[in-house]
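Still learning. Show one?

>
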Amino acid sequence: AAGVPGAQSNQPPVPATAPVNGAAQTLQAAGGGSSGGGTSRREQATRFEVDKTVTVTKNAVGSVKRLSAAVVVNHRTSTDAKGKTTSAPLADKELEQLTALVQQGIGYNAARGDQVKVVNVPFRSEPVSAPEAVPLWQQPWLTDLLRSAAAPAALALVALVIVFTLVRPAVVALLAAAPAAAAAAPGAQLSEVVGDAAPAAAGNPMLPALEGPRASAKLEAARKLARDNPAAVAHIVRGWVSGEQA
């Protein structure tokens, strides 16, 4: 029966009496009833994880897989009393001893497949000639010595050329000009002092005979000059002695 239109909207809500998922069950039932004329789809994914194992092998440094060695031994040599030298092969026992010695020395390992062979054969001997004598001027030590002394010798030669061409003439000229300068300065004064002196005495011609007041004044001046400049006076006296001896 239909009520008055709009009466339900003015009424407070009534608490629900059915479960919340009741409508969903109804929908499922309705869908199940109508599945006869529809299609269905189902998907399934399966993943298979594959295990992975990594193995790293590091070999030792310098490992030996197999060792092979060969040794050649000379014949035994002997010299008799006459000085004759002969050679003879080694015995089998001696070769076995040498083989064992070589195996021990190289670290022989039979399980590894190592091989060692010792052979006894005569060595070829040739006379050794004496080396030729090398001249002295071709000796290596002399060449090295000359090469190392070349630079100092060149510098010394240049220094000698400079000394004899420049320094020596300058020194000679300086030494020659020194006596002339010394004679020109104080020596002239001494010559003026004794220039007017009387002739030399008979006993010593180098000593002038001074007379009177004028001679005394000149003698005093000579003494004063000798006190003031003894080097010049000594030089002049040396010149007098040299002239007298000449």
Remarks:
- Residues 68-120 form one domain.
